[in-house]
Amino acid sequence: MTTTPALHLNHLNAGYGRAHVLFDIDLTIHPGTIAAIMGRNGVGKTTLLNTIAGLITPTQGTITHHNTDITHTPPHTRIHHGLAYVPQGHDTFAPLTVAENLHLAHQANPRSHPHPIDHALHHFPRLQPLLHRKAGHLSGGQAQQLNLARALITRPTTLLLDEPTEGIQPSIVTEIENAITDIAAQGITIVLVEQYLDLALRLADTITVLDAGRITHHGPRTELDHDSAHALMAI
Amino acid sequence: MEALLTQLPTGLAIGSVLLLAALGLNFTFGQMGVINMAHGEFIMVGAYTAFVLHAWIGLDPATTLLLALPLAFAITGTLGWLLELGLIRHFYGRPLDTLLLTFGIGMILQQAARDLFGAPNVDVPTPTWLTGGITLFDTVRIHHSRLFILALALTAVAALAYYLHRSRPGRQMRAVIHNRDLAATTGINTRKIDATTFFIGSGLAGLAGVALTLIGPTGPTLGTNYIVDAFLVVVIGGLGQLRGTVIAAFALGLLNATVEAWADASLAKLIVFAAIIAFLQARPQGLFTVKTRSLT
C-alpha cells in the first residue's frame, strides 16, 4: 500500500548566511509514524527542524507536507496547514500566563481546538493549578508540557519536537514520553530530534542519523539494536 | 520644601510631555529594538497637523485640538508604518544602519517642514477653556493646558496597558517581542505585528506633538529637543516596560524642573545627564526588567 507522505524533503540544502549546514537531505516520513532524527551536537538537527518549520529558508530543494509544497510558505502559515513545532530549550511566552499562552495559540489558528484549555488539561492535568501563573515562572518540565499543549491545541497533523526532554527531571521525562506516545496514537506524525538514545529507540518507528549535515543512516528502528545505534551515533 | 512644591507643576508638565514622547519609543525602541531617530520629527509632524487644521483649514482652537489628536495619531502612525514597511524592515539586525537611515529620514522631514511652513516658529492658539489655571497652597499655579497634557499622557498609558494586556493583538505583540520565532511557529503573523507596533509607536509621537502646541511654539526642529530625553526615559525605565517609562518620565521631569530652578539651562542639563549616568552605572537594566525563572 502506498500512502501520501506526511513530510517529504527533496534535496534540501540550508544554512545561516554563508554557513552551509544541511546538504542534499532527502527524507520521506509516513503519516502516523514517529521519525527520530539523531546525531551528535552541531550536525544540523535543529537546523533541519527550523527549516521544516519555516524559520530558515532553504537555499535549494523542496519541502512537501501532505502533498502541499510549503517550501516558501511563511512559518505562521505552516502551522495553519497542520505543521506544529516545539523548539528546543522549552522557552514559553514568559510574560503571559499559562492560560494566555494557550489562548494565544487558539486565537492564532483557525483550525485549533474549540476548547483549548480543556484540551490542554486533558493531556497535561499538571497544568491545572498553574493556569494563572506567569509562564516564565514554570519549571523546565512544566514549561515543556505547556509547549506541547500549545502545539496540540492547533490540532496538528505533524508535530516537530526538538529535544523535548533535554534538561528535565526524570519523573517528568516519563510523563513527556507518555504524552508523545498518546499523541502518536492519535495518528499525529512526529519528527523527534533526540539525543537520548534509549528514549528514541523506545518511541521511534524510523531512525535517521545525521552527520555533518548529511543523512548517514535511515531505516526502521527494528533494523537497529542498541549497540549498532550507538556505533552509528559515534561516527 | 516650598521650592520643590512650586516646581512640582513644571516637573509634572515636562514629565507628561516626556512621557508622551517616550511612550511611542517604548514600542519601537523598547519593544522592537529599532532606534528610530525620526521619532522626533514625527512629534513635529503631529504639532504641524494642529497648525494646518487651525491656520490653513481655519478651524477654531477647540475643534483644532480635538480633531488634531486622532488625526495626528493617524498621520504619524501611517508615516511610521510606511517607514517600517519600506525601509526599516530591510535593516533588522543592523542597528547602526537603522540609526543612520532614520536620522536621514528625520532630516528630510525637517526640510520638508521648512519648505511647507517656513523656518520661523508658528503658534497654534490654545482653546479658551484651557487658558486659565488653578492655584494650590497660594503659591503653586497649575495651567489648565498642563493638566490637560497630564491627563492625555495618563489616558494614553491606560489605553496602552489595556491594549497590551487585555486585547488579542496586544498579547500577540507581547508574544512576538518575547520570542519572535516561537510566536511565528505558534501561528502569529510577526510581520503584521511589527507593522502594527510601528503604527502605534509612531502614532503616539503625533499625540505628543499636538500636546506640545499647547505649551510652546511649533518649529521644524521641535522634535529634536525632546528625542534624546525621550530615549533616556525608555532606557531608565527598563526597555519595553510601561511602568518604568511612566516613573522615569516623571522622575526626569521633576529632576529637570528642580535643577533648572537654581542652575542655568546648560548646567542643569549637565547635572541631569550626570545623574542618569550614575543611575545607569548602578542599574544598567533600568528600573524594571521582565522577570523569568530562567533569568533569575
Describe, in plain words, how this protein is organized in 3D.
The complex is a heterodimer of chains A (235) and B (296). Chain A has 235 residues and is α/β, with parallel strands linked by helices. Chain A has a single domain, classed as Rossmann fold (3-Layer(aba) Sandwich), CATH 3.40.50. Chain A is 34% helix and 26% strand. Chain A contains eight helices and ten strands. Chain A is globular and about 45 Å long. The N and C termini of chain A lie far apart (35 Å). The model of chain A has no long low-confidence stretch (mean pLDDT 91). Chain B is mainly alpha-helical and 296 residues long. Chain B has a single domain, classed as ABC transporter involved in vitamin B12 uptake, BtuC, CATH 1.10.3470. In chain B, strands 1-2 form a two-stranded antiparallel sheet. In chain B, strand 1 and strand 2 form a beta hairpin. In chain B, helix 1 packs across helix 10 and helix 2 packs antiparallel against helix 3. The longest helix of chain B has 30 residues. The C terminus of chain B is likely disordered. At the A-B interface, helix 2 and helix 3 of A face helix 6 and helix 7 of B.
Helix/strand layout:
The complex is a heterodimer of chains A (235) and B (296).
Chain A: E1 7-16, E2 19-29, E3 34-38, H1 45-53, E4 60-65, E5 68-69, H2 75-80, E6 83-86, H3 98-108, H4 116-123, H5 140-153, E7 158-162, H6 170-185, E8 189-193, H7 197-203, E9 206-211, E10 214-220, H8 226-233
Parallel strand pairs in A: 3-8, 3-9, 6-7, 7-8
Antiparallel strand pairs in A: 1-2, 1-4, 4-5, 9-10
Helix pairs in contact in A: 3-5, 4-5, 5-6
Chain B: H1 2-31, H2 39-56, H3 61-86, H4 95-117, E1 133-136, E2 140-143, H5 144-166, H6 168-178, H7 180-185, H8 190-212, H9 224-237, H10 242-262, H11 265-282
Antiparallel strand pairs in B: 1-2
Helix pairs in contact in B: 1-5, 1-8, 1-9, 1-10, 2-3, 2-4, 2-8, 3-8, 5-6, 6-8, 9-10, 10-11
Compact overview of the structure:
The complex is a heterodimer of chains A (235) and B (296). Chain A is α/β, with parallel strands linked by helices.
